[in-house]
Structure formats: C-alpha cells, structure tokens
Amino acid sequence: MESALVHALGLEYQPVALSLSDEAPRGARTPPKGRTCVMRFLADAARGETVALEKDTVSCRGGLIGLGFTGDISHMPGGEEGFYRFLSTGNRPHLKELGLAEAGMSEDFLDGERYLKTPELVKLFVEGLPAVEIEEKFVVLRPLSAVGPGEEPLSVTLLADPDQLSALVVLSNYGRETADNVIIPMGAGCHQIGIHVYREAKREKPRAVVGLTDLSARLCVNALLGDRYLTFSVPWRFFREMERDVPGSFLERTTWRKLMALRKKKR
Fold first, then answer.
1. For residue 211, what are the β-bridge partners?
2. Residue 41 half-sphere exposure toward CB, CA atoms < 13 A
3. How far apart are CA 135 and CA 162, in angstroms?
4. Calpha distance 142→52 (Å, rounded)
5. Which burial class, exposed, middle or buried, applies to 115 when counting CB atoms under 10 A from its CB (0-12, 13-18, 19+)?
6. What confidence tens digit (pLDDT) does each residue in 216-245 have?
7. How many CA atoms, within 13 angstroms, populate the side-chain half-sphere of residue 221?
8. What count of other Cβ atoms lies within 10 Å of the Cβ of residue 250?
C-alpha cells in the first residue's frame, strides 16, 4: 500500500506489517528451527522480505512469549526460578543448590543478564506482561508495500531515527484529546512489537509502542540495519488514523521541512 506517512518521514527502511494467520502467505520464507533473535526477521521484513514464523521453529524462548505463541515460562532452562535468575543475578548459586552441573550453560544464564536487580523483581515483571496467547499458527512479518487493498494487518512497525521518532510521537498525539498516546514498556524487542501491541490493539483508543530498547536485540539489529533506530509500533487502526492526520499537519510545515533539509545535507 502507498503511505503518506512513510513519504513524509523519509524512512530508510520499509515499515513492517505484522499479521496473524493460519497459513503462510505465498512466497513467504518459513525459517527452519534455529537459535536466533526473532528481531532479525523484523530486519529482514524491513528490507523487503516476507517471513512467516511459527511456534515449532522459534527456538528463542523469550521470542515465543513476545510473539504470543505461549505465555508459559516454565519451559525455560531451570524452570520459572531459572528464568527469574537469568534476567537478574544468574544461576550459578541456584544450580549448585540443586546439585546440577554448569557444563554447556551460557554465561548469561550462569551469571545473569542483570536487566533487573533481583529475581523477585523479574517475577513481578513477568506477571505484568500482557497475557496474550494467539490461536493462529503463524506470525507473518512483511513490508507494508506487500499489504494489498482491503487487507488489515494487526499492526505496523516503523524503524525510526531520533528525528523520525520525534515526529511520530508528535503525530500520535496530534488528533487526540490526551498527550499520553505513546508508551515505552520495558521488555524484549519482540515484546515491544508483539504482545504489548496486541494488547493495545484491543483498547478503544490504542497507543503506540516504542521499542528496540532491549540491549540484546539491539546487538542483533544493529549489525543488520545500523545503530540509529528504535521501533515504533502501532495497531492498524491507529496507523490509519495517523495516515489521515498527515495532510495539514506539522509534517507539511516549515520546521519539519528544515529538519528534512538538514538531514539531506548530512548524507
């Protein structure tokens, strides 16, 4: 589909439409099982590829939760307690208490990613995640240009640099009665394009979700797309609302045009 918003922002990469489906689209790549961050597939879609992900081939356990394939963390190594320690203080003491060997365990699992201070805080974080478990077989990521007339994906994710993200935040509030229509929830990169956006899609007034603040996901995506981007994800209804708001907005005025001119000079 053609997008006035995409044109006005001058995006380098294509927006990514996310859909839930029981069938993989014709020509879609269905990656074989392999241990990789699912955010790399967002990068692939932003570069023009259609990717269909399914539960049986997503080996990243966090990715299974982030995309809504499961809400169960008991399948994590070491169970729930092991996951709580994985995101915080590490599993070395826990494994010793259980009398389990450490051979073959990753350093992150053993020593903790330290993204939250204690296992107890990780437990509260997990309990606060959106309780979403999809019924469809596939999560499909594809460039917005591949969305046909009449199709309605669940959401759209844009890869935005600081100037573009600033414009998106302003536009998100442009036609709304409140000024809190963008959130930045802590979580994995896939949480921020997946379950958090799924939950927003059910709200009467959905909000946008800024993401790619996950340091582990940034390691993956930066290597593929560069280090200037955050994700900005919106449910389809909100994306269409923002599209309608482009004409007559600040995106057609002097300040944004000057910013765009400065950007072109730097390139």
1. 231
2. 29
3. 36
4. 9
5. middle
6. 999 999 999 999 999 999 999 999 999 999
7. 27
8. 15
